[in-house]
Amino acid sequence: MHNFTFRNSLLYGLFWLFSFLSMANFAFAADQTNSISGRITDEQGAAVVGATVSILNTSSATSTDANGNYVLSNQTLGSKTVVVNMIGYERFQTTLTVAAGENKLDITLTGASDELEEVVVIGYGTARRKQVTGSISSVTPEEFNRGVVSSPDQLLAGKVAGLTVNRSGGDPTAGSTMQLRGPSSLTASSSPLYVIDGIVGANIELIAPDDIVSMDVMKDASSTAIYGSRAANGVIFVTTKRGKAGAPVLSYSGYAATETVSNRVNVLTAAEHKAFVEENGLTVAPNETGYETDWQKAITRPGVSHNHNLSLTGGSEGTRYNASLNYFNNQGIVKRSGVEKIVARVGVDQNAFDDRLKLSFNLANSINTSQHIDYGIFNGAARFVPTSPIMSDDPQYGQYGGYFQVVGRTGYMNPVGMLNQRDETRSNNTLLGNFKADLKIIDGLIWSNVLSYQRTHWDRSYYMARTDFDSFALGRGFADRTALKHIDKILESYLNYNFTRDLHSFDAMAGYSYQRTKNDDGLRGTAVGFMSDDLLDNNLNLGALPDGYNPYSDFPHIKESLLISAYGRIGYNYDEKYLFSASIRRDGSSKFGVNNRWATFPSISAAWRLTRESFMQDQQLFSELKLRAGYGVSGNQNIDPYRSIIMFGPRDGQFFYNGKWVNAYGVNQNENPDLKWESTSMFNVGLDFEILGGRIGGTIEYYNKETKDLLYEYDVPSPPYQFNRLLANGASMNNQGVEVVLNANVYKNDNFRYSTTVNFARNVNEVGSLSSNIENIGVSQRYEGDIGLEGWTGQTASIVLPGQPLGTFYVAKYIGYDDVSKRTIYQKPSGELVTQDQISAPDDYQIMGYALPKFTYGWNNNFAYKNWDLNIFLRGVYGNQIFNATRADLSRLQQANVTNISNDALKEGIFETPLIASSRFLEDGSFLRLDNMTLGYRFDTSKAKYFKQARMYLTAQNLFTLTDYTGVDPELSLGGLSPGIDNRSYYPKTRSFILGVNLTF
Predict the structure, then answer these.
(1) For 150-214, what is the HEC assignment?
(2) Would the keyword S-adenosyl-L-methionine turn up in this protein's UniProt record (predicted)?
(3) d(Cα 236, Cα 791) in Å, to the nearest integer?
(4) Nearest residue to 347 (alpha-carbon basis) of 366, 365, 363
(5) The domain 32-108 is classified under which CATH number: 3.40.50.1970, 2.160.20.60, 3.10.20.30, 2.60.40.10?
(6) In angstroms, what CA-CA distances link 510 with 120, 408, 500, 584, 780?
(7) Where in the chain is the domain with CATH 2.60.40.10?
(8) C-alpha distances in Å from residue 471, one per residue of 413, 466, 753
(9) How far apart are CA 436 and CA 361, in angstroms?
(10) What is the C-alpha to C-alpha distance for residues 469 and 404, in angstroms, rounded to an integer?
């Protein structure tokens, strides 16, 4: 992996950061006369850590230490107003007359009445939990998944009912697939929209997990419609740490981790393979015997990862600042794979004009360098005969760099050679700068303006060595370089107005948004014919273009788009009993056809807090009972620009004309002026409750989500169309589901606490019509899930069919194995029993299972005993099936002389080679995983000179998985048109052990 060239600069930056901190602390401690000091506790007498203590209308402020103590030094004599703020507690304010010397003031804070006082982020504003009328789930750092996390979206896996976060395998370079309340698109992205500190569409990779304060997930359309055409898949708000008034606070968090393979493909060892071929009269080629090679072990290693986060906050009531620096290095358990990332952030908040104007400036930069491997090595590591050598001194293998290869065998390549002879490095450098100004025009009326600029430089370097077994590179090498730039500019201007009189409260918001995006601005170069591999892909001019190869066939072209919006929201609240909210957004997008570039996205929602009613005042069971309902419409515009217009480009490579290679050009995309965005309407009803004084609480939700005008690529006749494919609207899909969240403070005394949270989600998906909105263009069904095993030409395992969910497995029905005839038996839809040579694919296939689970769940447990804390988190899915193409490929007992086989196939004892996709390879994909367990200890820092807080912890990830699935791991991606297929190229899942520390100075 490439090293960063600015590590020395990083060390210099840390030096100056510590120097600044030292000077700040020196200045802060220079004068301790006329001080106010004391201790802040809660109603049980426990210390309140991190509370902000300030003098009203001055810059004098501080924070409480680990024992709740504080000191406000250098106070002038006279009357002072002391203010204490702390999340989860009521604001405290009192007046004190400062006399000469030390003035003691101990304070007891009153806890907020319940979790309903929690502030959550909503579109273009915030609201208290009890005022929310939509479906919003909040996750705080205390609830995040601990351990080795390469992207912040993994923090939410299993934590939010209805939100599925999958990262197939343990590849640190792979992103997660996210799906909220089921799949709702056929071709467009299903990822939720991220809003980071108010910046719409900001890159989540710009945030280090330690910098996050909360993540709020908006799930229903009545909440998301304010973001219009980008919100059909939900919205996730990310709030990061900001500066607080008080002395500079320096925090460090870091960990070191070791990762190992949690499970392997269960193939035969060299000894087992040798015994099997001898027992069954099979003959292995002489050059493939005599060795004991563990191919899976040869490509893997124990991975070592570490993460370091340093942050500094402080300031006065008028000026506050925050800065953080994060370094993350995740070494993959597969050799030559891994990721290295640096994230730097700085922010300044300034109040002016008696706090009527608030200015915020933020700058973030993320540099991500990753080393990738060819996923074909996993197929090779499973299939390569274990009695073959990795390297050979035989001169015939010199052309392959000494790696043992078998010439003429299709899809059979030495995985170690493939791993070491191919080099792929990618780099993402993302910069985000944003400025926000909030002007208080009159009491209750605030005008906010936000400007943001996000730029990403994406680079990819790929090289295949001259000794690579692939015929395209053998003897000449192959190099490919790509450099792209993406730019996103946003202007948001909106007004928020709040008005309260007696029991009536009104709020209104109106705004305008302008977003211009330019993607894929860059170059690509390709060359072959290198004299040496030493320079890899760093000098393309040393090679030449391949004969007949058109380097522009996949050449990036600039994709520009413009989104202009106007939006508004109104809300009414009567005595915090009856709540009402409505919003509307009008979006115009250049991505769509000239006839459909504008659309309107409305929403309406209401809530009734029954516990505020007089007839509920005498009951003792419910401390909170709120019924809410909402309906809204949101859209999905996650497609490339220019999909609605006719486009020309390279066609069929090049042709030889008049002694030269000439590029062929033609129409490669048809025009569709009626192309428009997908539209999702959702009805949601929910019940929020707390009983036994808030000791037990939860939420029950029901939703019905209908998506129409789905984008789908249809086959069309040519002529009259100039190209044989057309992107059009028309298909539909429905998702209905129930979500339940229960939380309980099971036990609490002075020394011990136990709390638990359980979430459950069930979603039922159904594909509607597949017909387009263009006359005579549509399909009745579509086969998906190409398998591509040897001898499985044209075999698919899934079907997209109206009335059925995505991920419907459509394969031959397997009955069993006839020991007499040594043939596998199948049943046609007519009921006729046949052998596999009598099955015609897909005409004789049937619906045999479903990839989407019946329900998902998560169970989080928190224990605390004195200074010790323990978190145990389990999650799982139930009721889904997986098509195990890996097992099918390793079930060729008759071919064990040329490929390895699995122990599962050995136990089955079926000697007929499988050549069709059948229910024989459908397996139950349900699992329960102990996903995370963390044991921590908080040190007593009351006598420490430099530490305010200190905590050490030990975390274990993926300790065990309970499942009947025979493959490497049952957790597969649920995205796309053919989810639930385990098709050989699987990066092994990891098991991690982490030792970490959190320090506050």
Answers:
(1) CCHHHHHCCCCCCEEEECCCCCCCCCCEEEECCCCCCCCCCCCEEEECCEECCCHHHCCHHHEEE
(2) no
(3) 45
(4) 363
(5) 2.60.40.10
(6) 20, 68, 18, 10, 44
(7) 32-108
(8) 12, 10, 64
(9) 7
(10) 10
C-alpha span between 936 and 867 (Å, rounded)? 8
Q: E strands of 332-386, at which residues?
A: 338-352, 357-372
Give 119-247's CATH code, choosing from 3.90.1150.190, 3.30.565.10, 2.170.130.10, 3.40.50.300: 2.170.130.10
Q: How far apart are CA 922 and CA 542, in angstroms?
A: 50
Contacts of 777 (CB under 8 A, 6+ apart): 714, 716, 726, 728, 771
Q: Which residues contact 749 (CB under 8 A, 6 or more apart)?
A: none
Question: How many residues belong to the chain?
Answer: 1001
Distances in Å between the Cα of 848 and the Cα atoms of 715, 735, 882 are 27, 21, 11
666 confidence band (pLDDT: 50, 70, 90): confident
pLDDT in tens, 285-297: 999 999 999 999 9
- The total of other beta-carbon atoms located within 10 Å of residue 935's CB is 15
Mean pLDDT across the chain, nearest whole number?
89
Residue 553 has phi, psi (to 5 degrees) of -65, -35
- Summarised one tens digit per residue, pLDDT across range 841-874 is 899 999 999 999 999 999 999 999 999 999 999 9
Report CA 852 to chain centroid distance, whole Å: 19
How far apart CA 874 and CA 279 sit, in angstroms, is 45
What are the angstrom distances between the C-alpha of 854 and each of 192, 493, 578, 739?
22, 43, 35, 12
Q: Which two tokens stand for residue 289?
A: 């015997």
Q: How far apart are CA 203 and CA 900, in angstroms?
A: 43
Distance from chain centroid for Cα 265: 26
Count of other CB atoms within 10 angstroms of residue 88: 13
Task: Give the span between the Cα atoms of 222 and 83, in whole angstroms.
Answer: 37
User: Do the beta carbons of residue 413 and residue 405 sit within 8 Å?
Assistant: yes
Rounded to whole angstroms, the Cα distance separating 567 from 601 reads 9
Q: Which ranges in the chain are annotated with CATH 2.170.130.10?
A: 119-247
* Chain segment 628-650, per-residue pLDDT in tens: 999 999 999 888 899 999 988 77
Q: Tokens standing for 530? A: 């290198």
